[in-house]
Structure formats: structure tokens, C-alpha cells
Amino acid sequence: xLTRRTALTLxxxxxxxxxxxxxGPNATSGGGSGGSDGGSAxxxxxxxxxWGNPTRNENTTxxxxxxxxxxxxxxxxPEPGEWSGYWDKLATQTAGGDFPDVVQMDExxxxxxxxxxxxxxxxxxxxxxSKFVDGSVEVGEVKDVGLAAINAGLNAFTVLVNPxxxxxxxxxxxxxxxxxxxxMIETAARITEATEDGTYGMTQMGTVQGLxxxxxxxxxxxxxxxxxxGFDAAAATSWFEWAKKIQDSKAGPGADASxxxxxxxMDQSLFGTGKIAMTVAWSNQVVANDALHDGKLxxxxxxxxxxxxxxxxxxxxxxxxxxxxxxxANSAAAVAFxxxxxxxxxxxxxxxxxxxxxxxxEVREAITPDLDESSKKAVDFLDAIEKELGxxxxxxxxxxxxxxxxxxxxxQDMLFxxxxxxxxxxxxxxxxxxxxx
Amino acid sequence: MSAVGELTQIVxxxxxxxxxxxxxxxxxxxxxMAPWLIGLLGITIIPMIASFALSFTDYSLLAPPxxxxxxxxxxxxxxxxxxxxxxxxxxxxxxxxxxxxxxxxLLAVVLNQGMKGLSFYRSVFYLPSLxxxxxxxxxxxxxxxxxxxxVNRFLGMLGFTDLPGWVSNPDTALWTIILLHVWxxxxxxxxxxxxxxxxxxxxxxxxxxxxxxxxxxFFRITIPLLTPIIFFNLVLQVINAFQTFTQAFVVxxxxxxxxxxxxxxxxYLYQKGFTQFDMGYASAMAWLLLVIVAIFTAINFFVSKxxxxxxx
Lengths: 437, 312
What we know:
Chain A is α/β, with parallel strands linked by helices.
């Protein structure tokens, strides 16, 4: 039988376990080896991290293999990942002084990492950018660092259309040079109506950062201005009202299904499984989405408030970047590999336009003739909108990386009906401002 | 010299007695404890000290920490998401732990009836405990309780319509995770089983002779004699539940969503530290959690005086 004494012994052991609570954060500061000499460009080993999808993983692995043939003394350890886990992992690795040598970087975290000295100045390290189209190198420059990252491809925001669903519903694909936001919802609502249960006209787009940015740009504002929020509460409120209409008019799925869809992998999402007629994506995602639909997708311009594509305020975004760790022990080899990725037509042919259309014009010219149909859709779209572009937006300031989470929380609360669109608009602005400060 | 030889020497020296001569034992015991000690120091004590120091700093992970005094703790007072995460966690602990213990106790009693193949059933029921905290089960849970998941298909066959996506609806998401927690009753169950085995049969025999029913035997013999074990399980499981992370992280995709309804304290701590680059604040949060768990444990010990019966 358990006696008081043994029970107490057990009991005393237990508070000790409580100590484990605090063991979470690994506190070692990012030491690592200095890496000042940087080693040789033609030998040594380094790590390469990227997020992506099956298509990109294959392309990138092939590019690494091709590079190894040119430089057999270089060893590259690939670390592919999914977008959702990638940033957590990178932050953890940074804290542990274990930052990969070459990383694929996103615009919204660029200032975060570069501003804190984690990234190498690529211009200073001798990366050749002479062949890049105007304006496509500057988007990787960060104050006090220099060229913290090099553009891996250009991007624009698109609406992806699954013509099969339109056909099944007997609805025509709208003219994307004249359509408005409301027409988009009306079209989608007709599709939902005309198809079986569980098939919808459009995804819930109210929590999509890129589309939100387009919305406020068309209202004459922008996501950021001088490192602060560039939009007002009224613009954000009207955005949430539009998003609510998607749900209320049944143009898109209800709140439950939308939340679930937003965390699903691309091939398991409603659009990926052919249950949605229209969704939004950056143009570099055309290829991967098209692969899920046997190359049948159509790429449209996003709608405009004015009903005119000329006033749609689209912009070219650096879809993603390549950056090199400031603490890399083999920075010379790492920079040489990045040079290969962005400047070599051979690499360009392997990587194609899956990371966006190359900013290096020589590479772009070299790859255009051999592009497959899916990739051509993306390139053609970028060409088509070139005359309609608005001004380039500011890059995301430190703290702005949280914006999408803030938008998602406010949007979900609004969609589940716990707050009004006006509350959501105000909250979006307040929380963004406090994240930036 | 072999280790065995050395041990014999130590033992023989010990027989001679004398406090000073005992010192060599201590040294060699350190060697034997080394694997555990190194783990304790490297994985627990040192990080704890570091996190205590960091809780007074502004530390972005990417740049060296800066001392800010009590600023992190002051910020907690006004952090509404932190308050919300405490509500979520308390709900989980206060609802989930008793349910889990009741499930564990009932199954232990059933399994204690001396049925055939006991060890097989014991393993089967223990299995969820081993896997429940794993990523795979959490993913399975998300699929099962999704809008188009197994649970809804089954309910659909029974004629229910308009079912929510249990994990994607803010009203139900937390409850699916509580259910997952209850399902991992295996380890308290094993401890209960061991406890039940130690209750002398003569009490039950005496009670049967006096005509006591099975139910009153359970409440008047089993439960009172089992209270030390119940208490032990309660303390352990409360501490465990406060630290729940994996399930919430995977089921919500790391967001704590929908609408922050599964924003567990540990998940918010993680977000602060690793996605918002505020490790100083996250460290301060870890210490607040430690204090909360300590208070809960102290309350448990205090209250135990009134309901736990020891055999001595």
C-alpha cells in the first residue's frame, strides 16, 4: 500500500518536473564560426534551404546536380521545406547559430533578417547583377546592409480560373480587363448556384495579403508608407465588407470550410481538387497549380474598382530572393552558387519560371523558347500587364511579417460573425501599427 | 582494473565504516550519474538560468539581447492575446484533466476484473498515450474532425446535416483537442491499475459478506484507498496539460486559429519567440507559466490534506 512517505517522495519529484516548463527557449546566442575568410568558390560544402512544392523541389535538386557536374568539389546539402514550417525553422536555426548558408528569402522577412545583420551583402561579395532588368536588383537592397538578397524571379498577382467548373456551371469566363470586384462575386455566386453542393465559385479571399494590398492600392493608398501602415480604417473596412459578401452570397464556402481550406496543402485544397472555379495566386504559382489540373487553367487579371485594367494598380514583386548567411564559413562557394542560380542560362533552363520570371534578361531570353505551356501562361501574363503597372510598393518593414497573421485573425473573427467588418478594419490597422512599432 | 573490482573495493571499504572514507563512493557515483547529470545541466538547468536572464531583455534572436528590466512583465499586463491564451489553457486543463482521469480510472477498474488477455488490452489502451502527443496523431485528428472528415461522414450516415468543420470552427476547435487529451489516458490508467492491485482483497470480501453492492464497494473501498494514486495522477497530469503544445500546433497549423480559439499559452509563447522575434518576452512568459504551474501544484498539495487518505 502506498504510504505517506512514498507519496511524498513522488510528490517532491513532481515540482522538479515543473522546471521543464521553462526549458523551451534555447538561449545560446548565434555564435557560429566567424567565416571571415569565406573559403574557396570552387570547393567546400554548404547548406541550401528553400520552401516550395514538389515541382520546385525537383527543379532545385536538378540544378544542384547540374552544378555538381561543373564543380565536383562542391558539396551542397539541400534542406527543402513547406512554407508554413519554413520560417519557424529558420528562426530556430538562427537562434541556435545554425543558419543555413544559402536561404530562399521572402520579401516580408527580408528587412527582419537583413536589418539584424544575418545576411551578407551580395554586391560586396562580388555577385554580378549587370544583366538584371531595371528595378529588379534594388528590391533586394536594405539600408545599412547593401544587397542583402538577390531577386530569384518576378511575380504579379493573378486570378486562377478552372474552366472545367465554369463549363459545368454553364457560366462564361468574364472579361478580365473590365471586371469589377462585385462582378467577380456575382459570377462566382452563379457558379455555386449552378453546380452541385460542395462546389463553389471562388475561394474566400478575405485573408489573402496580396489581394488586400491590391485593394488598398486601388483606393489610392498602399500597404506601407514610410515604414508605417499606408492604409486607413475605411479602406480596410470596405475590404472586409467585400470579403463578407463572398460568404453571404455563397459565392465562396462558409467560414468553417474556408479556414480548413486555407491551411490545406495545395494539392488537397478545394481549388486543387477541382471544387472551386476561381482562386488567387502569385504568378509563380501558376505552374504548380496548372500541374494539378492537366494544364487547363486560365490566368486572369484581378478585378479593379474602376472596371478598367489600366487602373488596377498591379505591380511586379520579387517572388522570392536568394540570400547568403553573413556567418557562412563557406561564403565564397555559397555566393558562387547563387551567382549560378541567377546568372547562368543553364540553371535558368532547369529552374524555368517556377520561382517567377527571371530578372536577368539574358537568362529570360535563353529560356523563353523552351518554356512549356504552363510557364508560358505566367510569362505572357507578366508581359500583358506591363503597361498597366502601378508604382512599386515599399518593402515590408521590420515587424510587418506579422501582417498576414493579423489579417487572418481579424478576417476569421469577422467571417465567424464575432466582430463587424468595421471592427475588423480598425483592429487590422491598430494591430499592424503596434507590430511595426 | 575492472569496474566490478573497483566496486568490491568500495564496498569492502565501506564495511570498515568512517565518514571520511565514504568520499570515494560519492566520486564514483558522479560517474554513474553523469549521463543524467549532463542532460539535467545541459537541457534543463542552464537553459532555465539563461531564460531567466533573457526574460529581462529585449532579444530578437538575430541580434544580441539588451537589458530592459521589467518591461516584458509590464507588457504582459496589457497583452490581450496573452490573457486570451491563459483562458484557453485553463479551460483545457480544468476540463480536460478530470475527464482524462475519470476515463483512466474507469478503464483501470474494468481491466482489473481479472479478464483474459489483460496484458493485451492494457497495451491497446496504453497505445494512445504513446502516440497522442505525436504529430502523426494530431494530423489524423485534423483530418477526422475536418468538414469532410470521418466524424462528419459517420454523423451524416446517421442523418445529421449541416455539420460544422469541428477543427475549423472557433466554437468547437478547442473541444476536439480536449477530446484528444482525454483519449491519451494510458499512463494514468497504468498507474491506477498498479494502485488497484495493491488494495487487499480482504476488504472486498468483508464488504461482500456484509452485503455491500459493487457500486458502494467502489465508492467506499476503492476510491478512498486509491486517493494517494489519484492525487499523484492529478498533480502529474495538471502539469502535463499546462505544457500541451504539439496537438495545438498541428491541429491549428501553428496559428492557434480559428480566431485564436486554440491559442494555447505555449503556442503563443512559441509564436512570440520564434515568429515574432521576441525571445525576451517569450522567456518572461515561460517564467510566468512556471509560476502558474507551481501555484497550481501548491494548491493541489494543500487541498490534498482534506481528501487524500494515507494508509499509515
